[in-house]
Amino acid sequence: MIFLIAVSLIWAFSFGIMGRLTGLDSTFVATIRLSIAFLCFLPFFRYRKLQGKEAIQLFGIGALQFGVMYVSYIKAYAFLPSHLVALFSVLTPLYIVVAHELAKRRWSWALLACAALSIAGASVIKFSQAPEGSFWIGFGLMQIANIAFGLGQLLYRSWKHRRSDIADSEAMAALLAGGAVLSLLGFALFGDASKTAPSPEQWYVLLYLGAIASGLGFFWWNKGAALSSPGVLAACNNAVVPLAMAASLFVFGEAKNITTDSILKLSIGATLIFAAIVWGKRLSKN
Fold first, then answer.
1. Spans of all domains in the chain
2. Widest CA span in the chain
3. pLDDT by residue, tens only, the chain of 286 residues
4. H or E element that contains 156
5. At CA 67, angle to CA 85 and CA 234, rounded to 5?
6. Phi then psi for 188, rounded to 5 degrees?
7. Rounded Cα–Cα distance for residues 279 and 275 (Å)
8. DSSP H helical segments within 91-133, as ranges?
9. Pick from 25, 129, 113: which is nearest to 77 by CA?
10. What parts of the sequence cross the membrane (predicted)?
11. What is the DSSP track for 157-207?
């Protein structure tokens, strides 16, 4: 669990730092970040310890957990400020709980009510912002990112339990390769080549996010996920949210751009979303 807590602290500031990459194509940013992370772990990759299909499995898990997640998550910054991107990542644990229940062939309509409560929270926040249709586009992109990241964690946890003899560092390159290739495919299909010229400052940001937030962060996160129960994993997915929101609002200065009334509505909406998560966890335990 210590790995999950450490990563939460690293990622808390990543949401605000991501705002420094405004103007760059989202699929380009995802590709660069994951490629840097891949190069960091390539020396540790042990292909000969994997069976043929296992390398493909890791590649696929990485494409989902890192590729789909990053393309959607980074694109959301075009529609939402970083503190809302951080807030809407809170729904990841709910998807982890739902996926785990479905895998066990269990289902409760109350879980659907949890999802509805979380959407109600988002609706309250919507009315604290300037009216614009792009809000729901950003919210939807974050849900795609949440689902991809949550499912990826469960899939890797299951895979690692079957191959506990393989160190996380030895498998990480295959996961990151899958994410990088998926992001590159996204750039080839939907990217804007005119938005691929980072400034010197943005290159420093990309290097940090690629090597530390993505490389070391994902490595420690998946290592912690493999050692934790689904319940603990879901709870730790929430740890980063209040830290990230505080960093975005007060360290990176986004609080200057919202009114007291907006902060009140943001607090009410966040409370509803957190209530949905707590309710979902209790239902899962029962």
1. 2-285
2. 59
3. 677 778 877 877 776 787 788 889 989 999 999 999 999 999 988 888 887 788 899 999 999 999 999 889 888 888 888 777 877 777 776 777 677 667 667 666 665 666 667 666 656 655 555 545 688 899 899 999 989 988 898 898 889 888 888 888 888 999 999 999 999 999 998 889 999 999 999 999 999 999 998 899 888 887 887 776 665 566 566 656 656 666 666 665 655 666 677 677 767 767 776 776 677 666 656 5
4. helix 134-162
5. 55
6. -65, -35
7. 6
8. 92-103, 109-126
9. 25
10. 26-44, 80-98, 110-129, 135-159, 171-191, 203-220, 232-251, 263-280
11. HHHHHHTTTS-HHHHHHHHHHHHHHHHHHHHHHH--GGG----HHHHHHHH
Residues in the chain: 286
CB distance 161 to 225 below 8 Å: no
249 contact partners, CB below 8 Å, separation of at least 6: 83, 255
| Residues 10/213, Cβ–Cβ less than 8 Å | yes
Sequence-distant (6+) residues with CB within 8 A of 95 are 146, 147, 150, 151
Sign of the dihedral through C-alpha 257, 260, 261, 267: positive
Q: What is the pLDDT of residue 227?
A: 75
Amino acid at 35: S
Closest CA to 74 of 178, 179, 225: 179
How far apart are the C-alpha atoms of 185 and 187, rounded to whole Å?
5
- Token pair 């950003």 is found at 138
| 83 phi, psi to nearest 5 deg | -70, -30
